[in-house]
Amino acid sequence: MILEIISIGLIISACLALFLDEMVYSVAALAGTFLFTALLYIVNGSDFAAIFQFVVGVGTLAILFLSGEMLGNKPTKKASSKKTFALIGLGAVLSLPAIFLSVSGSTGTTSDAFFGDALWNLRGVDVVIQSLVVLTVALGIAIILYERRSGEK
Amino acid sequence: MDFVILSLVMLTLGIYGLLTNRQLLKVFISVELIATAATLNFVMLISSTGQGLGQAILILAFSTDTAVSAVILALLVIVSKKYGTSNISEILKMQGKVESEAEA
């Protein structure tokens, strides 16, 4: 039962994230999507995946909130509650095939005992990935600073 | 087959948003939804087999997703600062104007 509720919430929040007009509400709905995904991982026994999903989601959302405030256009008219309810209904309808055809009766096996060993075996990859992330973030900051400097000239 | 259809619905929503939305940040949110769908499929498949290696390799997916997000957001900020709007149609119109002026 709990898997079905999480699946419905996941699809509804994804619909709201895509189709809501105001950017901040849209990002808040995306936060719900990440949260429901992490809950789905926890229920299925993948605790570490849930933690990583949560951490990455928090980082992405913090930046997205800032970008949404910076780049998002202010809506000319106020979003109607009728549209919001219609989107929730659409999400509920879209989640029906997933519930009846896919989710029911799934029981994940906990694999936490092997996670540490697996991660230790992949430590070289882990270091390379971390450096890749740091390098990419630095590249993004460098692009923005370069553009800002060339705009000032 | 568990959760495959759930991630398929998420993937369909993401692709639909990618094709129909004209705001740059909405396009980015669609890309995030597609990445979430792919990760969801991967995690559920691996957790059903009970291998920890899959969860460890999942860090690769998350890290790649974060790196892609950082680059996309930087490009979005630059494009919207340059053209003064985050609407793709208006940006394309402005690009057409700039190219026609350059040719003239």
Largest β sheet strand count, sense and barrel closure of chain A? none
Distance, first to last CA of chain A = 61 Å
CATH domain class name of chain B: Mainly Alpha
Mean pLDDT of chain A: 74
What is the CATH topology descriptor of chain B?
Helix Hairpins
SSE succession of chain B: HHHH
Q: Can you tell me the residue ranges of chain B where pLDDT is under 50 for at least 5 consecutive residues?
A: none
What is the tally of beta strands of chain B? Answer: 0
Most strands sheet of chain B: none
Explained architecture:
The complex is a heterodimer of chains A (153) and B (104). Chain A has six helices and no strands. By secondary structure, chain A is mainly alpha-helical. Chain A has two domains: 2-113, no CATH class; 122-153. In chain A, helix 1 (2-19) runs antiparallel to helix 2 (23-43) and helix 2 (23-43) runs antiparallel to helix 3. The longest helix of chain A is centred in the C-terminal third of the chain and has 30 residues, at 123-152. The N and C termini of chain A lie far apart (61 Å). The model of chain A has no long low-confidence stretch (mean pLDDT 74). Chain B has 104 residues and is mostly helical. Chain B has one domain: Orthogonal Bundle (Helix Hairpins). In chain B, helix 1 (4-20) packs antiparallel against helix 2 and helix 2 (24-49) packs antiparallel against helix 3 (52-83). The radius of gyration of chain B is 18 Å and the shape is elongated. Classes of the chains: A mainly alpha (153), B mainly alpha (104). Chains A and B meet through helix 1, helix 2, helix 3, helix 4 and helix 5 of A and helix 1, helix 2 and helix 3 of B.
